[in-house]
Amino acid sequence: MKRGVLLIDRGSREKEVKEELDFICKKVKEKGNYVFSNYCFLEVIPPFIEEGVKKCLQHEIESLTIVPYFLYPGKKVKAAVNDAIKLQSLTKVKFVISKPMSMHKTMSELVENRVKSALEKNTISLPSNQIDVMIIGHGSKDPNAQRSIQYVVDNLTNTYRNISHCFLEIEDPNIQQGIEKCQKNNPEVLVIVFYFLHKGAHVKRDIYEDLNPAIEKSNLKKVLITEHIGTDEKMIDLILERAREVEHAN
To answer: Is the pLDDT assigned to residue 249 strictly greater than 80?
Structure first.
């Protein structure tokens, strides 16, 4: 069957986001043997979902796999799915819609990859059980979002000396509270993981507005900050796994 795949992202004005999505779509097409792979945005800037789907339908395909490229289930994902489903009436091409990128072991592996990379980059050879980790997520009013990040923390509890999480906005613990909690454990090394898909405004600027002052006020010995998690090869594989789940079911 001739298949195409469309990633629905939240949307950002940062040029790095489009560059990352271009890279991801190229890799997904190659590794998944799709006729094409493309992306669109739920909000902020075009191409929006309707434009993205219509562009897909210009290709000779029998099925379109739509992947909500979000870290958390919630209102944004539901809105993206609903907008896409409405367009099924425009075509005989069959739409199948995958789960988002949450509640999967790969997310824990991505965090581990980022921690290892940060340690290697800084030539720190301490074993994992002597490393403290704090994950910074975006924050959401949807309880499923907190469950998703807690899932990652729980999976890695036995890997590191301590692991915790905090949020950039909307919910607690905030970044200041997160740093204060880590400080109480007196870590030799604290690795901070940016749990974001893209190098957007949050990763480039917003987090640092809270994180830098919090670190300066603390007495932490050594703090390392990782890259965001979106452009890892494991993320490509997870997108393909999510896609195949629904493709094989239909």
So the answer is: yes
